[in-house]
Amino acid sequence: MKTLRLYLEYWGTRLFYITVFFLICYGSYCYSVPEFSIGGHVFKSLLYHEHHNLATWLYYVEYFIFIFIILALLIFALTIYYGQDKRRKEKTHNRYINFYISYLLRFIFSKDELPEEEIKLKKKKLGKFIRNDYSRELVINTLQQIHHQTIGKMRSDTEELLHELKYDYLIRSYLHSPYYRHNRIALNTISEFKIHGYESYILRLARHGRNKLLHTDALVALIHLNPSGNLLLMIERKVNISMWEVNVIINNIEKDNIKEIPYAGLIHSENKGMILLGIILSRLHRKKELKSDIKNFIPYPNDNISEEAILAFGAFAEDESDFKYLGNAYNDATGRGKLSIISTITYSPDVEYAMHFLEWVAVNEPIKYKTEALKFLLTINMERVAKLKESEDPLVAMACKEVLDINL
Fold this sequence. Notes:
By secondary structure, the chain is mostly helical. It has helices at 2-31, 57-110, 116-129, 133-149, 153-164, 168-175, 180-193, 199-208, 212-225, 227-236, 243-255, 263-267, 272-284, 291-295, 303-316, 320-329, 335-345, 351-364, 367-380, 382-388, 394-407; strands at 35-38, 41-44. Among the domains are: 200-287, no CATH class; 318-408. It has a two-stranded antiparallel ribbon. Strand 1 (35-38) and strand 2 form a beta hairpin. The longest helix is centred in the first third of the chain and has 54 residues, at 57-110. The termini are far apart.
């Protein structure tokens, strides 16, 4: 019923504005004619009165003055309503800050030392505060913060308290609500407390959510609930993820120290975002066994995927053939990819090849890459840099001088 009420409120408000707009447009016509018809029935206009020797457009001027007065009264009434609602929320918030937070924290910290009867009385008192959705949101937010910042028994106590305060109904309603604010509260709570049972609906939000923020929140919730299983589901259902969402997912995976990830499934998926996610995670978690798979994405037409493949392959490069492959891929690489190849080739077991490659970059590439190549060449053989300083190319000489001056 609560979800139905939220939808009625959401669509009712929009229907109201559409109706008002329609009535204003149709009313302007009715106001200027002595009679009008609706559905084949003719009605006399009660607002119509004749203006002798006056232009027709004056009817519309008079009508819109009338509409302006009506709308001004409506806005005044809405201002009073929203002002009262704001004061009510401020009163609830102040009471919450001054009493409920300290009472809740004292209760959680001293729960083990209290007798059963007193615990029941304190829970009852906590429940009395929760009179409306706004107060429930405040309590849920506090429990989330406590749960996020604690470990062990304190963490389990907040989970138990959330369950005992019977928030399941509110979370379910908010998850299905048409308002993004409600969806975010529900998804954050589900994600933090790992509340299972909503995965299929959250996956639908991740697949079809038009709201980009909601789409991201749904993806994060799925990762927190069951990273390995839900990533496989996302691959199977072809859920699209953007570059921004790739970074958000990686941050959450690293923060939670999640290791059970279907790396190969991500890399071999058809979705570019999933491929990118798989390559980055493979590099971060040192999955060298995927080196040959990642190598295939270096010539990939998507720049982001190609760059990350170069970074990952460079991190896994071991023998001479790996470094020579990167050297051959240099010309087709993007800017970030080129910088990665320059730094990686420095560690080639074939030192002569590494120096020859860095010298070639220093001579033939733009100043940005010249300087970078010379920095790494300086760590291998300072004499080569000194020799290049005598080059007739003023850019090469300038880059050498800059590198040598910095390192002196």
